[in-house]
């Protein structure tokens, strides 16, 4: 009991921080988290301290309750007598303690989800924003590249065009289409891209250097790929090109002036 009880108390104290961190971060890895252990613990402890500070302040402000440091130190003590007395005192406060940790753990699940949604909605994590060093999701580089999340709200791309060179039977073939969705492997590597409106051509049929950008004749070199969706495996792509496109409304022609009466 001398060793197990302090370890259990410390676990309960830092658990909200680990839960908050896991819910808040946007990571492309769905398997094991290979982030340095020291960084994970430091972030979790920091979040736990912040959450406990807010909850203790709320308990004092609305309920008039304060933290009993004597009971906390008694639970962490190595003395059996001190531990027994502290456990008895905490048992008498089982209701408030349960409410405290219950609401804190619930907030550790809900709050980071809302906070992440707010960051994404207000684009506080885009490159160049003054909050980016704190709000940016550094474990999700593909997210920023394939969603255009680094653009300002009024400059968001309407379409994202993907061009990839794939080795087909020893011949490089260029595929291009509009990005619909993308998926990752469990270890966080880009797995596949889902494209629409896909065309292909051999890379040897590349456009000449004097071709004008957007030349319709240059686009006719692509053969359309039949189907609603085209799945491109990233492991089979030799190169990948991303182009952000914005649709512009065509100005309506002005009406001719009416003849004078």
Textual characterization of the structure:
Keywords: Membrane, Transmembrane, Transmembrane helix. The chain crosses the membrane at residues 45-64, 100-119. The chain is of the alpha+beta class. It has two domains: 4-122, no CATH class; 157-245, Roll (SH3 type barrels), CATH 2.30.30. The protein has helices at 4-24, 37-63, 69-76, 80-92, 94-122, 132-135, 141-147, 216-219, and strands at 159-168, 171-184, 190-202, 223-224, 230-233, 237-245. Strands 1, 2, 3, 4, 5 and 6 form a six-stranded antiparallel sheet that branches. Strand 2 (171-184) and strand 3 (190-202) form a beta hairpin. The longest helix has 29 residues, at 94-122. The radius of gyration is 29 Å and the shape is elongated. The chain starts with a helix and ends in a 16-residue tail after the last strand. The model has no long low-confidence stretch (mean pLDDT 85).
List keywords for this structure.
SH3 type barrels; elongated; alpha+beta; 20% strand; 2 domains
What is the strand and helix layout of this fold?
Layout: H1 4-24, H2 37-63, H3 69-76, H4 80-92, H5 94-122, H6 132-135, H7 141-147, E1 159-168, E2 171-184, E3 190-202, H8 216-219, E4 223-224, E5 230-233, E6 237-245
Antiparallel strand pairs: 1-2, 1-6, 2-3, 3-4, 3-5
Radius of gyration: 29 Å
Helices and strands, in order, run as HHHHHHHEEEHEEE
**What's the end-to-end separation, in Å?**
104 Å
Structural class, from secondary structure content?
alpha+beta
Q: Provide the low-confidence segments as ranges.
A: none
Number of helices: 8
Number of folding domains?
A: 2
Mean pLDDT: 85
Shape descriptor: elongated
Q: Helix share of residues?
A: 40-55%
Strand content: 15-25%
Number of strands: 6
Largest sheet: 6 strands, antiparallel
């Amino acid at each position: 009991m001398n060793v197990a009880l302090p370890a259990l108390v410390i676990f309960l104290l830092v658990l909200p921080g680990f839960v908050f961190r896991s819910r808040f971060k946007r990571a492309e890895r769905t398997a094991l988290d290979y982030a340095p252990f020291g960084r994970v613990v430091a972030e979790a402890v920091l979040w736990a301290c912040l959450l406990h500070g807010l909850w203790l302040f709320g308990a004092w402000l609305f309920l008039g309750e304060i933290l009993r440091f004597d009971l906390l130190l008694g639970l962490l003590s190595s003395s059996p007598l001190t531990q027994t007395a502290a456990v008895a005192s905490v048992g008498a406060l089982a209701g408030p303690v349960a409410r405290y940790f219950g609401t804190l753990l619930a907030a550790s699940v809900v709050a980071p989800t809302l906070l992440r949604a707010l960051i994404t909605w207000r684009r506080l994590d885009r490159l160049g924003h003054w909050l980016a060093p704190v709000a940016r999701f550094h474990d999700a580089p593909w997210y920023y590249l394939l969603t255009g999340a680094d653009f300002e709200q009024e400059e968001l791309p309407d379409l994202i065009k993907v061009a990839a060179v794939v080795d087909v039977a020893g011949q490089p073939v260029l595929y291009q289409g509009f990005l619909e969705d993308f998926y990752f492997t469990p270890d966080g590597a880009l797995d596949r891209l889902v494209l629409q409106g896909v065309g292909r051509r051999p890379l040897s049929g590349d456009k000449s250097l004097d071709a004008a950008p957007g030349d319709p004749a240059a686009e006719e070199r692509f053969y359309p790929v039949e189907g609603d969706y085209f799945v491109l495996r990233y492991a089979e792509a030799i190169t990948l090109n991303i182009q952000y496109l914005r649709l512009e409304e065509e100005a309506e022609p002005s009406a001719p002036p009416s003849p004078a009466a």
